[in-house]
Design brief:
single chain; about 325 residues
Length: about 325
């Protein structure tokens, strides 16, 4: 097939994600205000730029409760930054790290190799593989410090939300500890090109090749290989009776992620009778900035899930 060239790549990313390579500001500016809440001074410590798999592009930061005790069991919140798979940085998780580490939860915020050019050889599938390795590295690092991670939640924004869902939904048995729940904002749940406005097979094939990392020819569009490639990067395709409870926040006027996609996820959760919380931001676009009451609701719902689904927290509340 014709390879995705340097001109086609940003056009496809713009079409599929609403932003091209230039929009790396997305997640650095997009941290919901409840997450920015003030935390007590010195209530947590940060260890930066820890190694995951030896690559400079996959380092992570670790936020530890200031009073962390060796030999004690802990829950982990694993944050994945957004940025259209082309930008963003682990530093975008600093607000969440401060907030939840101050509550006695270990938090990690991870980088992954971005689709900055064809030479990066990055895809959604390669990003998920890197993040599986990073979760292992985080748990091992905590163990080295005498902190025993026994459960976790994944979370992310936009592209990071997709990756957070894929981590939890795809092969949870690969993770060193169980995922109790997911909380995510505006994450694409499928990359079916038709649902993103693709109207010719060249675009469909090029988009799925780029995003999945699997070579799909124009002639393969509509085939099992084509559908398998779509499903491999689409969280909604992985929902089953064992999928963890999920908080999902979306906006009906999202200018980047088609709003109807979230309905596919909700339908799947209803099909399997799974616990979920959908928080609608009626006045907002992709950045969820224009519904302050809904930001508070999202934050409070997350706190409820922490208390309900983290076994350690649940046990303390009894």
């Amino acid at each position: 097939m014709n390879h995705v060239n340097r001109i086609v790549m940003p056009q496809l990313l713009h079409r599929a994600l609403g932003v091209a390579l230039i929009l790396t500001f997305v997640t650095s500016s997009y941290i919901p205000s409840p997450i920015r809440a003030q935390t007590p001074e010195r209530s947590f410590t940060v260890v930066r730029d820890l190694d995951s798999d030896g690559k400079a592009t996959t380092k992570y930061d670790l936020y530890l409760p200031a009073n962390a005790e060796m030999g004690k069991d802990y829950a982990l919140i694993f944050f994945v930054h957004g940025g259209s798979f082309t930008g963003g940085d682990k530093h975008d998780g600093r607000g969440r790290g401060a907030r939840y580490a101050s509550q006695g939860i270990i938090v990690s915020s991870a980088n992954y190799t971005l689709m900055t050019s064809l030479l990066s050889h990055a895809s959604i599938n390669s990003m998920v593989e890197e993040l599986y390795h990073t979760v292992d590295a985080v748990v091992q690092e905590c163990n080295r410090r005498g902190l025993h991670v026994v459960e976790m939640a994944t979370t992310g924004v936009s592209a990071g939300a997709t990756l957070a869902m894929l981590l939890a939904y795809r092969e949870p048995e690969r993770l060193p500890v169980p995922v109790r729940f997911v909380f995510q904002q505006v994450g694409p749940v499928t990359f079916d090109p038709d649902l993103w406005g693709a109207d010719d097979d060249d675009t469909r094939a090029a988009l799925i090749t780029l995003m999945s990392g699997r070579r799909i020819s124009t002639e393969q569009v509509g085939s099992k290989a084509y559908q398998d490639a779509i499903d491999s990067i689409s969280p909604v395709a992985m929902v089953n009776e064992n999928t963890p409870p999920t908080i999902m926040a979306y906006a009906p006027t999202d200018q980047f992620v088609p709003p109807r996609l979230k309905d596919l996820l909700i339908e799947k959760f209803k099909k399997y009778n799974l616990p979920y919380a959908f928080i609608n931001f009626p006045n907002s676009n992709h950045f969820l900035d224009d519904d302050p009451d809904k930001k508070v609701e999202y934050h409070l719902t997350t706190e409820e899930y922490i208390k309900k689904y983290f076994i350690l927290t649940h046990a303390k509340s009894k």
